[in-house]
Fold this sequence. Notes:
Layout: H1 3-12, E1 18-22, E2 25-28, H2 29-45, E3 53-57, H3 62-74, E4 77-81, H4 89-96, E5 100-104, E6 110-114, H5 122-128, E7 134-138, E8 148-152, H6 153-158, E9 168-170, H7 178-189, E10 193-195, H8 202-212, E11 216-219, H9 221-230, E12 243-246, H10 253-262, E13 267-270, E14 272-274, E15 278-284, E16 291-295, E17 299-304, E18 307-312, E19 318-319, E20 332-341, E21 344-350, E22 355-357, E23 360-362, H11 364-371, E24 377-387, E25 391-400, H12 406-418, E26 429-432
Parallel strand pairs: 1-10, 3-4, 3-5, 4-7, 9-10, 11-12, 12-13, 25-26
Antiparallel strand pairs: 1-2, 5-6, 7-8, 8-19, 14-15, 15-16, 16-21, 17-18, 18-20, 20-21, 22-23, 24-25
Helix pairs in contact: 2-3, 9-10
Amino acid sequence: MTAIETVVKRMRENHEKPAIFWKSKEYSYDEFFDMVDMWIEKLNDYNVGKGTVCGILSDYSPQTCALFFALMNVGAILVPFTRSIEAEVPVFREIAGVQCMFRFTEEDSYTVEKFDNVSQNELVNSFRKKEKPGLIVFSSGSTGTPKGILHDCERVMNKFVVNRPGWRTVLFLMMDHFGGFNTLLSTFAYGGTGICIPERTPESVSRIIEESKATLLPTTPTFLNLLIASKCYQQYMLDSIKLITYGTELMNEATLNNVKKIFPNAVLKQTYGLSELGVLRSKSTEDNSVWLKVGGDGFETKIIDNILWVRSEANMVGYLNAPNPFNEEGWMCTGDEVEVRGDQLRFLGRKSEIINVGGQKVYPVEVESVLLEDENIQEAAVFGVAHPLMGQVVHARVSLYKPEDLLELSTRLRSFCLKRLAKYKVPMRFTIISEEGQHSTRFKKVRLIKDEE
C-alpha cells in the first residue's frame, strides 16, 4: 500500500473517536469518512480525477477537511486558499493552472466553478505522469513575487506512516501554508481531533481551547505575544493545553518565559521547517530554551559558514515559477544563520534580516527581546535602514500598552537599551504603530520596511 492508503486505512479504524470539533459539535471518524466517501462520488460527477488542479477557498471545516482527503484519494492536485488572501487568488490560480475551484462559506456550504482551456505549468504536466496526488502552496512573497511550490502528497504523507499518539489539535496555522497542511495531516494520521476555530484572535482561540479541551496549540511567536498582551488567558481555562509548538519565526526569550507562566502545564517545543523542505522533527533542550536539535528520519543537516543547509526526502517537486534552489546533491541553503553548540542549534535570524552596522552584526531578535522587557512595550519589530556612513543603522517599530509621548519614549528606551546592549545595537529611531501593523495575516512579524524614511 502507498503511504496515503496506509494512513487512511488506520484513520478509518478509529470509528467513533472524535475527528473534528467545529462550532461546538464533534464529528466522529465514521461521520468524517461518510463525508469523504460522499466527496469521492461528487468529484467523479465533476470529472475531477488524477492530475486535476483543484483550488479550495475556505478555512478548516468538516467538509473542507473531508474534501482534502477525497482529492488525495482520486489523485488530484490540491491548491488551498484562505479568505485572507482572496484578492490575490486570481493571480495564484493562474500560476497554479487551477481547473476547478471549490468555494466554501462560513456555514460549510459550497459552490464549484470549472475553468476551460487553462494554461498548464510545465512542472505540473511533468508531475501528472506520476499519477500521484499533489499539493501547491505559495511562499509569502516577502522578497518579491510569491513562488508556487509543488509537493508530492505521497512523499509528505510518508512522515506519518509510523503511528504516534494523537492530540486534540487547534488548527491555527493557515491551511494554505505548508505548516498548516502538515498539521492537518498529522492530526488525522495519528487519530487525533482537529479543532476548528472561527477566528485567529486571542479571545476566539482562548474560548475554543476551553470549550474543546484542546491539548495541542501549534502557533507563532507573534500570536503568543498578542495573547499575552490581550490578557485573555485570565478569562478562560487553558489548562487542557499540554503542548505548544511554535515556529515560522524566531522566539525571543522574554516571550518564552511569559508563555511558560501562562501555560504552566504545557511543554513548549520549537519547530523548524520550510515550505520547500517540509517540517523537520525537533527537540528542545528545555522549555525556556531557544536551543534545539533538528533533523530526524528523512532529513539531513549541515552548517556552512554559519548557515543551515538541509536535505530532505520530502523535498518539494519544484517551484512553478522560479529556478530550482537545490544543488546537484539535493541540498538547499535555508538562509538561516545559526549558532552551534554540540548537536544543538540556536537560530539567529535570516541572513537577509541581519543588520550590518559598520561591519558589526545585529540580530533583530536580540534587540526585540530587550525591548519587550520594558513594561510598556507590547510588541517590537527591529530592522535595518540604509545609512551613508555606517552602511545600516537600527530602527524599531513598537506598539504600546499605554499611550506615551514619542520623544519621551525614545529617550527612555535608548537609555533602557544602553544598559543591556552594545551602543551600535541600540535603535537610532523608534516609531509607534498599532499592534495590527506588526504582523501579517499569517501572524508572522513584519520586520523589513521599505521607504521607512
